[in-house]
């Protein structure tokens, strides 16, 4: 490793969009916006207005206007802003192609295929993606009113999509599970990089695994392969940026509840089955540490809730099945003796819920849109997000499960299985349906703050 590469591990926190390294405080209300730019000059004026309002990783806890703002752009959006062709060509092929063009590879087929996505998701009309979150509705409205006034004077920029995202009263997902546990520890991110879901514990916590090189998530830094990855040019555009996989996922809550009921003999067994599919109880307590019953006190303890591994504590999956959701998405030390280096396939995740809750106990769908907006961030879309989707979510070979898929987010089609190891005879669930339907997605680039200003100052 060169001296310059070593020095690069001191992160430029004031230039990095905060959402890359920091988790959103709880509770929150917010919204996602997709914009189309029909006039490059107006698009650049919009960025000039927004850039000072984006919270950096250094200012995350005291953001401008008490709201958390982030900005990302598609490849067609960079073109619409007037980015030179040489710069456009310096982005990787998968980003230039876009998520819709790679849908089959990702398992977005059938009812999850781009032909069924919510317009304009997946189209070249999506140029800029904005997210804004605040602690309460009043704070959110102040920011939105300011943005509305700014856009009113920019006829060459139009809002083409809006999605409200609000934390549910339960502070859990629509399936009833605590989310946002187990984010990677990033070298140089600072002691506030991990915020426990309860909102009251800062710092590095047990069980988050080995520290990951910053270059796995941010461009311009050394990664786990010992090099600084290629980044878009010029350097001011690429440095401190990251790639984003934006996913709108509809959750079939009623179908999930019915599947649990149909494959269990009691409410208690339904809860155990749900935990086996996810790898945690709904409270967030991990099966590896409490395999027989939920333990909300353990789940609420940030020093214990994530402090486990698989290789020695549960090598055969008797506690947490090998094919469970969390074990697939982060195998931890389970693949130590394999050729797979887990550290080069980690991705940052930010999830927000949308839509109303399905009433407790209701087993029939009410037709409402509800689900999760999943944001995956990393320096390499293929090696991180696409690998997770193609290998860990939609295949089972890496853990000896053949064609079995992730029970929650895999592209199941009601013909698959889910194996639960147990003695004396394993249990194999049949006819696993698809509980998560892709309603849209985009590959985006989230620039650093200097890059946003560079884009705003481009000339025709």
Give a quick set of tags describing it.
460 residues; alpha+beta; 4-stranded antiparallel beta sheet; 10 strands; globular; peroxidase; oxidoreductase; iron; peroxidase activity; Dyp_peroxidase
**Strand order of the biggest β-sheet:** 2-3-1-4
What percentage of the residues does DSSP assign to strands (E)? 15-25%
Major sheet attributes: 4 strands, antiparallel
Residues in helices, as a percent range: 10-25%
Can you tell me the overall shape?
Answer: globular
Q: Give the end-to-end Cα distance, rounded to a whole number of Å.
A: 40 Å
Secondary structure tally, helices: 15
Backbone CA Rg: 22 Å
Return residue spans where pLDDT drops below 50 for at least 5 consecutive residues: 1-8, 191-203
Give the strand tally. Answer: 10
Order of helices and strands: HHEHEHHHHEHEHEHHHHEEHEEEH
Q: Look at the structure and give the mean pLDDT.
A: 92
Strand pairing plus helix content: what structural class? alpha+beta
Would you summarize the structure shown here?
Pfam families: DyP_N (PF21105). This protein has 460 residues and is an alpha+beta fold.
Characterize the structure shown.
With 460 residues, this protein is an alpha+beta fold. It contains 15 helices and 10 strands. The chain is globular, with a radius of gyration of 22 Å.
Secondary structure: elements and pairs:
Layout: H1 3-7, H2 18-21, E1 29-37, H3 40-50, E2 68-73, H4 75-80, H5 85-89, H6 93-97, H7 103-106, E3 128-134, H8 137-152, E4 157-166, H9 235-238, E5 242-251, H10 253-262, H11 267-278, H12 296-299, H13 325-329, E6 348-354, E7 371-378, H14 382-393, E8 416-420, E9 427-432, E10 436-446, H15 449-456
Helix pairs in contact: 3-15
């Amino acid at each position: 490793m060169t001296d310059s590469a070593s020095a690069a591990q001191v992160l430029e926190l004031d230039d990095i969009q905060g959402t890359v390294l920091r988790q959103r405080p709880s509770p929150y209300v917010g919204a996602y916006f997709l914009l189309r730019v029909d006039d490059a000059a107006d698009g650049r004026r919009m960025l000039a207005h927004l850039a000072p309002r984006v919270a950096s990783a250094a200012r995350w806890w005291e953001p401008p206007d008490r709201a958390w703002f982030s900005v990302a752009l598609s490849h067609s959006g960079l073109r619409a802003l007037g980015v030179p062709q040489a710069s456009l060509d310096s982005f990787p092929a998968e980003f230039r192609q876009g998520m819709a063009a790679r849908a089959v590879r990702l398992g977005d087929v059938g009812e999850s295929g781009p032909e069924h996505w919510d317009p304009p998701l997946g189209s070249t009309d999506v140029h800029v993606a904005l997210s804004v979150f605040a602690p309460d509705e009043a704070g959110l409205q102040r920011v939105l009113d300011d943005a509305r006034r700014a856009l009113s004077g920019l006829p060459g920029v139009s809002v083409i999509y809006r999605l409200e995202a609000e934390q549910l009263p339960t502070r859990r997902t629509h399936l009833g599970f605590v989310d946002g546990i187990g984010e990677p520890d990033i070298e140089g991110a600072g002691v506030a990089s991990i915020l426990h879901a309860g909102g009251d514990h800062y710092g590095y916590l047990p069980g988050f695994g080995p520290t990951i090189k910053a270059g796995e998530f941010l461009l311009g830094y050394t990664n786990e392969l010992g090099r600084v990855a290629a980044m878009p040019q010029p350097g001011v555009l690429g440095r401190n940026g990251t790639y984003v996989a934006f996913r709108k996922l509809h959750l079939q809550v009623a179908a999930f509840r019915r599947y649990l009921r149909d494959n269990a003999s009691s409410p208690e067994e339904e809860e155990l089955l749900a935990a086996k599919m996810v790898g945690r109880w709904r409270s967030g307590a991990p099966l590896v540490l409490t395999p027989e019953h939920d333990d909300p006190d353990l789940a609420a303890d940030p020093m214990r809730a994530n402090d486990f591994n698989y290789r020695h504590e549960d090598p055969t999956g008797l506690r947490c099945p090998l094919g469970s959701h969390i074990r697939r998405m982060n195998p931890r030390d389970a693949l130590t003796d394999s050729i797979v280096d887990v550290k080069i396939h980690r991705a940052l995740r930010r999830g927000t819920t949308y839509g109303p809750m399905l009433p407790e106990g209701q087993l029939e769908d009410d037709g409402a849109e509800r689900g999760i907006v999943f944001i995956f961030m990393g320096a390499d879309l293929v090696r991180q997000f696409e690998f997770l989707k193609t290998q860990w979510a939609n295949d089972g070979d890496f853990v000896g499960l053949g064609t079995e898929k992730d029970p929650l987010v895999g592209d199941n089609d009601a013909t698959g299985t889910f194996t639960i190891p147990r003695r004396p005879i394993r249990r194999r669930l049949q006819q696993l349906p698809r509980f998560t339907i892709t309603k849209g997605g985009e590959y985006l680039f989230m620039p650093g703050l200097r890059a946003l200003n560079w884009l705003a100052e481009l000339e025709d």
